[in-house]
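**Fold tokens**
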Amino acid sequence: MVDDKAVHGALDELATRLVIPADMIQVHREASDRTRKYTSLRHGAFLLTYAPFERFFNRLAEAHGGASRGLAVNPDKIRFTLHQHTGITDATAAWKARARVAPDATRSTNISPWIYIERARLRDYLADAQRLRNLLAHGAAHLSDQNRSGTLHVVRGGYSARLMWVEGFLQAAQDLAAQTALTLTNGQASLPEWPSPQLSATSRSGLLERPY
């Protein structure tokens, strides 16, 4: 049985903890000095988005009798764990998120477009994010081996999360958390006011409608 109060508590905690990375993205965007000390903000913003996003699912599991940690942001593992502890058959069935991705070769600009990401590509996207989190936490600057989702930017020596990718990951985390909460509460969850950096005119014009 789902504890609606616990679901709302997890949502509110996530929204509160995403304020800082949203602010960091905004500071990065406003900085006229593009030296390393500013461009590195995107890595910090990503790490401070990933950690509370992962914690959201662990808190849901914990609130329903599961472990308080150890649940990775993986659709299959989350589906199994939440089914085991809440009885909801497929809490990730409706997962579809907005994300910003590296422009492909067919585009004439360097602007990272907003896309909907779901199913197999979403699983790869989250796996790429997990590997990137692990590398950044140990001092690496980018993925050197794989870009399974095809969303990261190609850089010398591998693949990188540019500011626009991180902005998209912040949005994707909010979309997936919201959809999970709505599924668990049969559509009755009261969603928080999600923090967001001020979008540029180009980014705002390309932002897609929410997928839930």
